[in-house]
Amino acid sequence: MVFEHEIPKGSRLYFGKTAKAKRNLENRVCEILDSKGFEEIITPNFSYSQHQAIANDRKLIKFSDEENEQVSLRADSTLDVVRIITKRLGRATSHKKWFYVQPVFSYPSTEDYQIGCEWIDHDNIVDLVNITGTILEDLEINPVLQLSNINIPKLISKEFDIDIDYFKNGEIAKLFEIDDAWLNQLIKVKDIKDLEKAIKISPEVIKAELEKLLAVARSVEYKNLVVAPLYHGSLKYYDDVYFRVIQDNFVISRGGKYSSDGISSLGFALYTDSLLKILED
């Protein structure tokens, strides 16, 4: 029996102090993004292309439109923002920097609020990481910013016949069992100095991607930085250097470089509910 005052599991309810804290957080971040030249966009809750962003489409809440085409509730904002700007609004605006404050939805009834931005047709990931750092400093928190390159685990898996699931699932013990000196060194990398040492003994086939990661790490202004060359994230579209921000077992943010319809772009999302919990503590 469902009572009329109940809300579905995974849904969000904000009231009183929590609603005010949420509004204040969103306003602070939006002011920073506005000062950096980003303009706001609010995209439809419904989408035809969510399967291209989400690795596990079982997480999508799906139904059919009047033409029997599959529609999903928005589970990720990135690719929809880029396609709407470049294809639907292409003649109406040439602006490349956009931010949004809106929820995403996943099966069966989970909603999560995000503050995100997309920098279309721009490929210097350092610029985006430094904006993220500015936001964290403004909020007066000092979480770990983990920097990775998705091409490194992909190349290692392909060239050395190592199961990619070891990287996707974070099965470090399995990687140690392979017992390669260069791989063991990569597993231990945590900072710039570690990465410099690992590059010296790494196979030529992955050195270019490791050096790309090193160049970004050296240019990042944020101090609480961890380098994780073997991390493999869950989002489908990041295809180069990317990052996540973590504190107290909460993932606060994810961002990185991706391509959509041949256009290289950057984007990140800040997870509102995780940030509210940390700021409350």
UniProtKB/TrEMBL annotation:
NCBIfam families: PRK12293.1 (NF008946). Keywords: Amino-acid biosynthesis, Glycosyltransferase, Histidine biosynthesis, Transferase. Residues 18-274 form the Class II Histidinyl-tRNA synthetase (HisRS)-like catalytic core domain. One of its GO terms (cellular component) is cytoplasm. Pfam families: tRNA-synt_His. SUPFAM superfamilies: Class II aaRS and biotin synthetases (SSF55681). It comes from Halarcobacter bivalviorum. Its EC number is 2.4.2.17. One of its GO terms (molecular function) is histidine-tRNA ligase activity. The keyword Amino-acid biosynthesis applies. The keyword Transmembrane does not apply. One of its GO terms (biological process) is L-histidine biosynthetic process. It is an enzyme of class 2 (transferase). InterPro entries: aa-tRNA-synth_II/BPL/LPL, HisRS-like_core, HisRS/HisZ. This is ATP phosphoribosyltransferase HisG(S)Z, hetero-octameric short form, regulatory subunit. PANTHER family: ATP PHOSPHORIBOSYLTRANSFERASE REGULATORY SUBUNIT, HISTIDYL-TRNA SYNTHETASE.
